[in-house]
Amino acid sequence: MQILFSTKKPAIIEKKFLEGFINNKNFLLKLNTNEILDVFDEISKYWISKNCKTKKLLADYEMGFLVAWIKKNNLKNLLQINFKDYLVLDLPVYTKQNKTILFARPRGVALHWLAGNVPVLGIISLFQTILTKNKSIVKVPMNFKSILPKILKDLNNNKYFNNKYKKNIKLILDSIIVLYVDKKEKENQEFLSRNADIRIAWGGIEGISSVLRLPKKINCRDIVFGPKVSLAFVKKEKLKNSQDLGILSKLICDDIIPFNQLGCNSPHNLIIENGSNFSLNEIAIAIGKEFEKRKLNRKFITDPLISFNILAKKFAYQIDKSKNVLFSVSNDWNIFVNRASKIKIEDPLFGKSLFISKVSDIKTLFNALPINTQSIGLLCKANDKVNLMKFFADAGVDRFPDLGKMSLYQNPWDGYLPLHDTVKWVSSN
């Protein structure tokens, strides 16, 4: 692994070194897929061990999910969803159905633009390209530029791993470059983009658009994860007694708290179907009590604009007779209650801020959904889930996780099976 941090001077980026990295042999081709899976599984064990030097760093940035995600069994499932028989990544496989021999090869160099809100997703993006044996150049944002290098450096020459894993970890690390390049450095940005075989970008409209405007190879594949919003929907049958209310409070907090709601899969609106046994105020009070039980991480609350927007919305809700707001004294959480008959999906405020409203007809909710809705977290009976998925999918919604599991990364993601776009297919009939 190499770490390159450029300055305002374009020449500081080591272009000759990068050209060598791009053109030289791919070390990952020495490993079969099961060997890579074994390495990831061993890293997962290390991250939860007492020997892990970066355990606090992982905890501070809420990367506990990453530990579970890179376990061998989970990654095998991910590969099977994408490829059915993941041996196709190692050798030609004969498919009886099509009477075709298929072989999946890495595209080459994956260039990652990591977003500045949720670092764990960018790291997951890197690990997926490793699974398909692509070399990676990872462009980190300024606010997280030290995180990934620290995590990866800790894996290098670590006494925790035996010689077998040390060798394979080194091969993986040798296939990665981490760098920071300022967005104003046009020459460097264009150089990196022109040499990429895959461009993977996470971020907002401005950031994604700037990436897509950069020159690229004709056959370069773009994988884009742009800005999305998510919400939660609860069927009335799931709110009949105090136990149900306690379950709802726990699950919605499980989804709100990670990453301070900065993830595109974080819920900002909670929609309750009319007919439950609880008022919106009762639901808000229960969720507020659940927030108070938890030690809330304020590490991500760094943007003064978030605090300003929360304050402005509080004022608007307090002067409207059809609305009210509950909040903690320390401003760790805010719950906005809208009792108006007409539903409105509010824009995200972040900072553990939740809007609660009711709806009598799912058609009304359908029509109110923002066009960039990614996920609807569902609390409903099992036999209702498929029908709700079919209904809301026509509104462009991609994911329907169970409430409480909205923050978990899954495949497909944003309607993608992204691993497909990280390989090129070789075939023979």
Written overview of the protein:
The protein is α/β, with parallel strands linked by helices. The protein folds into two domains: 2-226 and 414-428, 3-Layer(aba) Sandwich (Aldehyde Dehydrogenase, Chain A, domain 1); 229-393, Aldehyde Dehydrogenase, Chain A, domain 2 (3-Layer(aba) Sandwich). Helix content is 38%, strand content 19%. The strands form three sheets. Strands 1-6-5-4-7-8 form a six-stranded parallel beta sheet, sandwiched between helices. A six-stranded mixed beta sheet has the order 11-12-13-10-9-14, sandwiched between helices. Strands 2-3-15 form a three-stranded antiparallel beta sheet, with no helix packed on it. Helix 2 (33-47) crosses helix 8 and helix 11 (242-256) crosses helix 12. The radius of gyration is 23 Å and the shape is globular.
Task: Fill in the keyword field for this structure.
single chain; about 425 residues; alpha/beta; Aldehyde Dehydrogenase, Chain A, domain 1; Aldehyde Dehydrogenase, Chain A, domain 2; 2 domains; six-stranded parallel β-sheet; six-stranded mixed β-sheet; 15 helices; 15 strands; globular
Distance separating the two termini: 40 Å
Going across the biggest sheet, name each strand in turn.
1-6-5-4-7-8
User: Would you identify the CATH H-level superfamily of the largest domain?
Assistant: Aldehyde Dehydrogenase, Chain A, domain 1
Number of E-type strands: 15
The shape is globular
Q: Give the CATH class of the largest domain.
A: Alpha Beta
Q: Please, what is the average pLDDT?
A: 90
How much strand content do the residues show?
Answer: 15-25%
Order of H and E elements = EHHHHHEEEHEHHEHEHEEHEHHEEEHEHE
Structural class assignment: alpha/beta
CATH architect. name of the largest domain? 3-Layer(aba) Sandwich
Pick out the low-confidence regions: 6-11
Would you tell me which CATH topology of the largest domain applies? Aldehyde Dehydrogenase, Chain A, domain 1
Number of helices: 15
